[in-house]
Input
Amino acid sequence: MRRWLVAAILLAVLLFPLLKVSPYVLHIATLIFIWAFIATAWSYMGRFGLVSLGHGAFIGIGAYTAGLMFNHLALSPWMGMLLGGALAALLALLVGWACFRFGVMGDYFALLTLALGEIVSLLLVAFREQTGGSLGFTLKRVGSSWLYLQFEDKIHFYYVALAFLVGALLLWHWIDRSRMQKALRAIGEDEVAAATLGVTTIRYKLMVTMISAFVAALGGVLYAQYVTYLNPHTLAGVGPSLDIAFKAILGGMFSLWGPTVGTGIIVLLEEYIRVNYGAKYIGLSQIAYGIALVSLIIFLPKGIYGSLEERLKRKKARPQK
Amino acid sequence: MEILLLNALANGILLGGVLALLAFGLNLIFGVVKVIHMAYGQCVMLGMYLIYSLKSMYEVPLMAAFAVAVVAMALWGALLHLLVIKPLLGAERLNQLLALAGLIIVFENLAHVVWGADLRGVRVDLPVVSMGNIFLKTSNLLAFLGALVVLGILYFMLQRTYVGLAIRAIAQDTECARLMGINPGRIYLLTLTIGGALTGLIAVFFSPIYSVHPHFGGSFTLMAFIIVVLGGMGNLAGGFLGAFIIGVVTSVAAVFTSTEWAEILALVIFILVVLVRPQGLLGARGAR
Output
């Protein structure tokens, strides 16, 4: 039943552009896919109690590595993606190892990663000779090209972003069925107990952190390729880092579909308010978004999709009593 | 170069005084309510905008604008407690952190909508004080002295008054204090009100020094965190020491490199402290 539902949704999303929808709708859908991809990557570690507020660092590193390599060396973003992802994973290894080795957890972990995201953003500004500083830089246009991951029309990117998102969701599934998941769940529930039972806690935590960083970096490249413009304040630093975490948490970071649902709701809400009221008061949409966020955290701490799922489960469980 | 360094040192110490006030507010709230107020610097920013509006648009005398700002920010702090912090008291720590981080978005965009993205400032013409080769802005000096006076008053209040005793009792052991007949809810409200009044006071001290813009609070919130963690979360004396360390380090580093590198240095210190000495410089062992 559930499998059919997923297949139906996927089919609908695949066929959706055939309805001759406007480029604007495709644009919004593409944005949702890309950010849902990143938010899903964030949740790989977030759901095991590793709440990072610094994923901006990873998307920034990915996007800037691929972007600079393309502009200066004409390296294909597909290669840049792997390179940027590897660099992000390396940073994750370094910081993750230090954190887990010294037992940094919970809100200290969150604050430390927050600083990490800001450091990367400041570094991108400080190396202004290469990166264009606060003003950022634009990618060279080459027209439509699969090799250089640039397209003149929206529809190509719609499918590319969708494919990436599906990949991220499949990866979630894979992590779920691997040994890693059992170990990490045990760690998330009681780290000391897991360690005494012989789980090599650091290795599994590092593994999931590196996967999350790598995938997030891919998302950064994807976003930069789509908007063909890189800026340290939209790709790294406190703002984007918090945004990623909020999208996942709002949807519910413990469920497969949570980050995607959360991203969809936030992007649509932002767009709705921006289109309807944004012209009069710039920033109003962000205020509403912030207030919605704070109230949702207060009233639905499990996230929107997470709470819904829990309610459905409870309903299902009742007749069996 | 030597003179430049000496000036940076002196100004760093002056900056440290005001940062100490910021850290004190954050520490007080963390120590008593056990909540990390992520949007603290943004509250200072709102206070500065309020002063600007009163002074420039309604032509209120500066001193009156200052007084209004302190009272208004105290009420704002109380309001935040009732609307956001109080409903989250029983929630997970991380959710508290995230909800308060969400307020950053609200406040910064509120400032954007009301006052726009331009730099706003109140112009106060004050002479420069010189001591030999060291030149100090009077506004910085006044802010420093003012911050010290306020810190002294707060210290006296915490140590010598009944309310201060109640606040310290709650900070030490909430359950035990409750059994002694202290109402934690009221102390929390009071703490957030004092914390709010402090943001108003910092806004008063900052107004003659800096122009304000919607993202003004961000760097100060981060700076305040660095200081608080450096000194040990909830440790008031540690925060005082940390403020001067960070004030001097960033001012001196900014002379040698650029402001970005100075900030990076501060953040790296922060990360190292969290990793190696999470209880802070003056914190007790096992304070995490």
About this structure: Residues 2-33 of chain B form the longest helix (32 residues). Chain B has one domain: 2-276. The mean pLDDT of chain B is 86.
